[in-house]
Amino acid sequence: MEGVEVLIFDIFGSTVDWYTTVCAELKNLGETKGPSGSENWHAFAQAEEWRSAYMRQTQAFAKAESDPLTTPNVDEIHRGALETMLASEQWSHIGQCWDKDARDNLNMVWHRLHGWPDATEGLYALKKDYIIAALSNGNARLLVDMAKNTDLPWDAVFAGDVIGSYKPNPKMYKTTAKLLGAPPEKCAMVATHLWDLEGAANSGLKTVYVHRDAKEPTEESTDVRTKAEGGEVDLVVKSFTELATVLKNSHST
Known about the structure:
Layout: E1 6-9, H1 18-33, H2 41-46, H3 51-64, H4 74-86, H5 92-95, H6 100-107, H7 119-127, E2 131-136, H8 140-150, E3 156-159, H9 160-163, H10 170-179, E4 187-191, H11 194-202, E5 206-210, E6 235-237, H12 240-252
Parallel strand pairs: 1-2, 1-4, 2-3, 4-5, 5-6
Helix pairs in contact: 3-4, 7-12
């Protein structure tokens, strides 16, 4: 990681624990608005029509070089997918209980996601020696709200609707590095998603894999190793606080 000046962080699953937050809000909404009885909110959170729809649509737009003025942002993707889901045979009994206000509020849960326990402490430690920036497919307002809600002290925020594409399109990584005044080789992408790190590496960035129990519907648990161990990333850590310690120790040796 020698020469790195900028640390660029993925958000969903890497910095914030979307799964636990969303499941808790679903459970609360079910208790207050219905339906009565038990529901598998974990399945709802990961369902093909919602979280997977976000993954599927953003990656499709990333490949298509879509017009940013006509491409839906992540709030719109989540809202449309939620409507489709609640109209489906599997989930329509829930849709009958939730009015527009309930659905609007639920869709905003993505603005209220909680950080992983180490996220805030680790970011503040890293901020002392590095530029720290968020790079997400999420839209700008979502990322700003989330940073305020869970105390994420970014120096800069780069969103899909700001750059005009979605990861893993190279434009996302290269534009972020350029706007921060650093060549790609002086930037490192920090993420729990290998597809994201692969996109960053292909754009010339160094890569840091952080182990998270992110429960992404499109990913399986993988034994990730560093390049020195014959793997695919530059560094592997278990938390942002560990990353801060590792980088600080590397400077002192």
